[in-house]
């Protein structure tokens, strides 16, 4: 697998932590920021329009949504609603994009610059939201409900995801609790202690099962607040007596050509950093009985994030050193590796 350098698509004026793509509009949504520290680094959610120019993909800034003193660290998308993890809270945003009719004047406002920003890209503050108009496209963003989702001594929401029909969302953070909320009211419907310490990731399956992975080296499968089973990776795979591993990420994926088929994918990384780091591992599990199907080493760079393509065909891995790799989901065979940036890959889309 040869390493190559990926072309730059977009450079934000703040650190990026989360990405989503809206399938209905094709908008790329990027979020992050500098947090509450007074460093001059802004916090925001950027809505980018993707275009192909002279055969190359390009992104232009369509709308910048200011999140004030809160950096968005994690993001989930359900239709026209975004769930943004900001410090210890989850903030819901609604965005609406539609084609303009006639020649409307563009509105003045934000002057925040990206690598390519359309002329006059300027949101105007309104009572119930922020609106940006461009030739041919109009985007409106409004804040909905917000709720505190983590209650540790140093609270932080680390992950958020919607269920299959977008009626519920689940959150996890540094206090080890899973909390499930109605959408869009954010009324809490479930709360339970899933891990001793931080929750690193969680995934909701179409059958209502929830998988959580935590800093306590455990990966657990839940039906509501009842423990169904715990994943047994080191008991069934490579073992290193002096090197404990922990689960870093988990994602469900469809089985191509099997409408009812389901796979779970996890990443295991060494629990402690060593001078000569052992390899990280990628594992596929049966989505019904949660037994391991196959495990493959995915290199010595520490994995930071995992994603699965909508079809279930490909897996994407990002590392703390900025590399991105693509694997075939069925065989776990690597097909692509590139150095995407010089820092940790926080978000990855396929």
From TrEMBL:
Might you name a Gene Ontology BP term for this protein?
endoplasmic reticulum to Golgi vesicle-mediated transport
Which parts are the WD repeats? Answer: 160-191
Query: Sorted alphabetically, which Gene3D superfamilies does this protein's record hold?
Result: YVTN repeat-like/Quinoprotein amine dehydrogenase (2.130.10.10)
Annotated SUPFAM superfamilies: Quinoprotein alcohol dehydrogenase-like
**Is-annotated flag, keyword Transport?**
yes
Alphabetized UniProt keyword annotations: Endoplasmic reticulum, ER-Golgi transport, Membrane, Protein transport, Repeat, Transmembrane, Transmembrane helix, Transport, WD repeat
Query: What Pfam families does the entry give?
Result: WD40
**Compositionally biased spans, kind Basic and acidic residues:** 103-115
Q: Does the record bear rRNA processing in its keywords? A: no
> What's one GO MF term for it?
guanyl-nucleotide exchange factor activity
Q: Which GO terms describe its cellular component?
A: endoplasmic reticulum membrane; nucleus
User: Where in or outside the cell?
Assistant: Endoplasmic reticulum membrane; Nucleus
- Domain of life, per UniProt, equals Eukaryota
Chain segments carrying region Disordered: 101-128
Q: How does it sit in the membrane?
A: Single-pass membrane protein
What is the documented function of this protein? Was first identified based on its probable role in the regulation of pituitary gene transcription. Binds to the prolactin gene (PRL) promoter and seems to activate transcription.
**In which family does this protein belong, per the annotation?**
Belongs to the WD repeat SEC12 family.
The record's subunit annotation is: Interacts with SAR1B (GDP-bound form). Interacts with MIA2; recruits PREB to endoplasmic reticulum exit sites.
Official protein name in the record: Prolactin regulatory element-binding protein
Provenance organism: Colobus angolensis palliatus (Peters' Angolan colobus)
């Amino acid at each position: 697998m040869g390493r190559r350098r990926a072309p730059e698509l977009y450079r934000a004026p703040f650190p990026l932590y989360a990405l989503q793509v809206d399938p209905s509009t094709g908008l790329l949504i990027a979020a992050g920021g500098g947090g509450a520290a007074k460093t001059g680094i802004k916090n925001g959610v950027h809505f980018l329009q993707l275009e192909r120019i002279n055969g190359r993909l390009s992104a232009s800034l369509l709308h910048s949504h200011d999140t004030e003193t809160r950096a968005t660290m994690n993001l989930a998308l359900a239709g026209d609603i975004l769930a943004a993890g900001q410090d210890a809270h989850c903030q819901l945003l609604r965005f609406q994009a539609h084609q303009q009719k006639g020649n409307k004047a563009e509105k003045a406002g934000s002057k925040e610059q990206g690598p390519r920003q359309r002329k006059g890209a300027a949101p105007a503050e309104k009572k119930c939201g922020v609106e940006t108009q461009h030739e041919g496209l109009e985007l409106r963003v409004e804040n909905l409900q917000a709720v505190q989702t983590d209650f540790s001594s140093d609270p932080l929401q680390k992950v958020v995801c919607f269920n299959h029909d977008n009626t519920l969302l689940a959150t996890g953070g540094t206090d080890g609790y899973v909390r499930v909320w109605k959408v869009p009211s954010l009324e809490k419907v479930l709360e339970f202690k899933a891990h001793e310490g931080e929750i690193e990731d969680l995934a909701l399956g179409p059958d209502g099962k929830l998988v959580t992975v935590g800093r306590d080296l455990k990966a657990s499968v839940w039906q509501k607040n009842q423990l169904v089973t715990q994943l047994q990776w080191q008991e069934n795979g490579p073992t290193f007596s002096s090197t404990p591993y922990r689960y870093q990420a988990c994602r469900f994926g469809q089985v191509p050509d099997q409408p009812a088929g389901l796979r779970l994918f996890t990443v295991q990384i060494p629990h402690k950093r060593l001078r000569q780091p052992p390899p990280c591992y990628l594992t596929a599990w049966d989505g019904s009985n949660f037994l391991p199907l196959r495990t493959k080493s995915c290199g010595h760079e520490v994995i930071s994030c995992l994603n699965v393509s909508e079809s279930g065909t490909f897996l994407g891995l990002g590392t703390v050193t900025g590399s991105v790799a693509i694997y075939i989901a069925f065989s776990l065979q690597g097909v692509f590796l590139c150095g995407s940036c010089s820092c940790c890959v926080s978000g990855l889309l396929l």
